[in-house]
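Thread: glycerophosphodiester phosphodiesterase, structure

OP (GT): Posting the sequence first so everyone is looking at the same thing. Length is 381 residues per the record. Can we get the structure tokens written out before standup tomorrow? I want them in the notebook alongside the other entries.
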Amino acid sequence: MAAALKAFHVYDVPNLDRVPEKPSLSLCSTRFSKGVELNRAASCRIPNFLLIGHRGHGMNILQSSDSRMKAIKENSLLSFNSAAKFPLGFIEFDVQVTKDDFPVIFHDDVILSEENGTVFEKRVTELCLAEFLCYGPQKEAGKEGKRLYRKTKDGKFEKWNVETDDSLCTLQEAFQKVEPSLGFNIELKFDDYKVYQHDHLTHTLQVILQVVFEFARDRPIIFSTFQPDAAQLVRKLQNSYPVYFLTEGGTETYYDARRNSLAEAMKVCLEGGLQGIVSEIKGVFKDPGTVPKIKDSNLSLLTYGKLNNVPEAVYMQYLMGIDGVIVDFVEEISRTVDGMIKPDEAINEEERLSEANSKVQFSEKELSFLLKLIPELIQQH
């Protein structure tokens, strides 16, 4: 498997400071007929309300009582193509680079497995590609992979068992084997608590960008990352695809102040020429007045979080003028959105934005009601 994939090194890039550009691409996939233009440097066109599948068909929460959170292995080709069966514009997934320079798709910083009865961890970025691919189900018939584990919030190790499992995969495989009309929201994954040198970030991003530029073809692409330096750097390295800054919106606190509020996220975007923000939805609901400020700054706003699996929360975001949501329950939410947001209602974007702008100031009582919907899926599992 490893021999069939080509490793890209920084010295393969003609100019170390910039990946060769392609003509600017529309963010609007063939799944949509209408979109709204964002007048920033990279051509960025989004549908009237964008649905994005979280890690494909949805993330895995092994200790959840909801079977949907354990249906299909997250961040797998099977998960991506299962999501493609629904009217989504994009899928979101996490990309890291192995020590031998292969972009692979995996969310956690470390892989947990078992050896001689003891669970151990290895950093994904410290594994070579062959080592990474030996975990979980194997593509080769008769070959057994090493068992994967996950760590629960209370510190326990749990076998990563899902109803339908699948092999780990590379970014190149995703481009080659996933429905081509489905857009990719590529999250550039870095350790939240690690300080990265500029040269390391540059090298990592160059490796990822080389695969993107070789295999993306006409597929719509969004880059996103919680790492503010990486966000601004990937924007400098290419001008073909929009870059979004991920933030918890103040719901978590980090040593880097740029990560701690929507206001700081706006600064990162405006200073770096980024196209938008992806925020934890609770951060937006706690500070709804930021939404018109973000829109007035000509930035796009997407959200993620467990509340995005609640239909009422998704519809409220549509009314607030938020541009799209990342969801786990792709079948249910896509059906709900299709029923709530009629095609005729979405044709005139100016009218939609006018309607949204007149409704962005929700009362504390309304927001309190929304946040107290209390479905199990928004509780801490």
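GT: Both are above now. Quick notes for whoever picks this up: The chain has 13 helices and 16 strands. Residues 258 and 264 are 5 Å apart (CA to CA).
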